[in-house]
Specification:
The complex is a heterodimer of chains A (about 240) and B (about 300). Chain A has about 240 residues and is of the alpha/beta class. Chain A has 10 helices and 10 strands. A two-stranded antiparallel ribbon of chain B has the order 1-6. Chain B has a two-stranded antiparallel sheet with strand order 2-3. Chain B is globular. The N and C termini of chain B lie far apart (about 55 Å). Classes of the chains: A alpha/beta (about 240), B mainly alpha (about 300).
Chain lengths: ~240, ~300
């Protein structure tokens, strides 16, 4: 089977800083794949490169058989690739519903109504607040909105950058159970997390990043059991 | 009665400032730059309308339409050639470029249309059967005169404000503009083409500047290549006064500034009126740095 996303030996620089040093990985349809690692390991940079916000000097990103190297950032989402960015980045002065509509910006308006219902069924709290200005939502609700907004584009691959960041433990649990239920409904997910324990326990496979390189990979269970991972990321 | 007269001409002048201020505020909101050439687009619009009507004998509405079309195109071209290449440049470079574009437009106008003042025709006058021209309505036994230009100006301002509010609140493009003004990166992730959104913003702002140019020169018919610069600066002041980036702020700032200017001229001193207007700006900014309706900018930590 062909992977739906294939990242092959990408190298990304911030000025003279070599942030990504030849990362390669694949995501297959229906999987949850996680990239874990400490701050500065290059997790977000990798996602931003796939979404076209940053560019790789060498190597390639192939999505559904098509190279994304020359595709401008705003054309990526209509190919079926959606990113829930780090720090949520919702449109805080627009209403909840307007944020969701922006998620469906590239789609015909006939598809929007059904997807709005789908998103509201995953996130009933957003439905209660659909006319509220998004900036007034709590952190957890904003994360849900950012996820719902990405789902509105009808993605074939949903990428999430640190969805648990800055949330209370109970909300982290809630966000992860939503990710699992999306997965059960057939979504393919690429998850970037600092919370390695939570990410690995729901992931099919994982890659461990350190200073711009993949240092370890395996199934979620294998990585959870690995002594090196336990020592470095799971507190012993 | 004279108070009412002053108030009405203040609102009328303020309406023109408000229409110009919209161009500043929308471009600032989305491209995060101050387009100091905006005032000169007003002048270009006024010249286009003047030549269409006075030289080529076209009907006034066609002249206004021509001015709007030319200015819209000018706005898009200026953005593409002068500002787009500087998208990643420091804001100071963009600011200096905008000042350069402003001088370029003024001097191009000087070459094309010379420094001889043109007397702008009054489109808003009616001829009576006996041949006398009336330019306004007399009320209260002739003590209060409201000119047709005033009525049209205020009406135009109200219509433009309502239309823009509807546009940004209800259309896909309008919502995309709001999304870009909040977070360009996130807007791109939604599939919004940020560059074309910025072009549309310049197009709308410049088209409105053409209308403002026609209204301005209808009220103050002396047209020279520098006609746009002072109203441009005043309208920029109005935009900052009301809170730059905010559409209702542009309206409020424009009207307040216009009324303040006319009152200062009438009751204090004609020469000092501009000083008083700008002093008021300084006071507002000292008390509320983000302007009357502006949102405070939070620094990200």
């Amino acid at each position: 089977m062909e992977p739906i996303l294939k990242v092959d030996d990408i190298n990304v620089y911030y000025g003279s800083i070599h942030a990504i040093k030849g990362i390669s990985f694949e995501v297959y349809e229906g999987e949850i794949v996680t990239l874990i690692g400490a701050n500065g390991a290059g997790k977000s940079t990798t996602l931003n490169t796939i979404s076209g916000l940053l560019h790789s000097k060498t190597g390639s990103v192939t999505f559904l058989g098509e190279s994304l190297g020359k595709v401008p950032s705003h054309k990526i989402v209509s190919k079926g690739l959606a990113l829930v960015p780090e720090g949520r980045r919702i449109f805080s002065q627009m209403t909840v519903q307007e944020n969701l509509e922006m998620g469906a910006y590239t789609r015909a308006s006939s598809a929007v109504a059904a997807d709005l219902d789908m998103v509201y069924s995953h996130f009933p709290r957003l439905k209660e607040r659909y006319r509220q200005v998004a900036g007034t939502l709590s952190g957890g609700e904003q994360q849900m909105l950012a996820m719902g907004r990405a789902l509105m584009s009808g993605p074939k691959l949903l990428m999430m950058d640190e969805p648990s960041m800055g949330l209370a433990p109970i909300l982290v649990e809630e966000i992860f159970s939503i990710i699992q239920s999306l997965h059960k409904n057939g979504a393919t997910i690429l998850l970037v997390e600092q919370n390695a324990q939570a990410a690995l326990s729901i992931a099919d496979r994982g890659y461990v990043l350190e200073t711009g390189k993949v240092v370890l990979s395996g199934t979620g269970a294998e990585l959870l059991a690995s002594p090196a991972i336990k020592k470095a990321y799971l507190g012993g | 009665m004279s108070f009412l007269n002053y108030l009405i001409s203040g609102i009328s002048l303020g309406s023109i400032y408000a229409i110009i201020a919209l161009g500043y505020t929308m471009v600032y909101g989305i491209a995060k730059m101050l387009n100091f050439a905006h005032g000169d687009v007003i002048m270009v619009g006024a010249y286009i309308c003047f030549y269409s009507v006075s030289r080529f004998g076209l009907p006034a509405p066609v002249g206004v339409l021509a001015a709007v079309l030319v200015c819209t195109a000018l706005g898009i071209v200026v953005e593409r050639l002068a500002y787009k290449p500087l998208r990643a440049a420091p804001s100071l470079a963009v600011l200096i470029t905008a000042i350069g574009v402003s001088y370029f437009l003024q001097n191009a106008a000087l070459l094309l249309w010379t420094s001889n003042p043109k007397v702008f025709p009054n489109f808003f006058a009616a001829k009576k059967a006996d041949g006398t021209v009336i330019t306004g309505i007399d009320l209260a036994g002739g003590q209060l005169t409201i000119s047709y230009v005033t009525i049209v100006t205020i009406a135009a301002c109200v219509i433009i404000m309502l239309a823009l509010t509807w546009f940004t609140g209800n259309t896909k493009m309008g919502k995309a503009m709001r999304a870009c003004s909040e977070d360009k990166g996130a807007a791109q992730l939604m599939g919004i083409d940020v560059n074309s959104t910025i072009s549309v913003t310049f197009a709308i702002g410049s088209g409105l500047a053409a209308i403002a140019g026609v209204l301005l020169c209808s009220a103050y018919p002396n047209l020279v290549p520098t006609t746009g610069s002072m109203p441009g600066i005043k309208a920029f002041t109005a935009a900052v006064f009301g809170g730059i980036g905010s559409i209702p702020g542009a309206l409020l700032g424009g009207i307040l500034l216009g009324v303040l200017e006319i009152f200062a001229k009438a009751y204090i001193s004609t020469q000092l009126s501009d000083a008083i207007v700008f002093a008021a700006l300084i006071v507002v900014l000292l008390v509320k740095p983000s302007g009357l309706l502006g949102k405070p900018i939070r620094e990200k930590v």
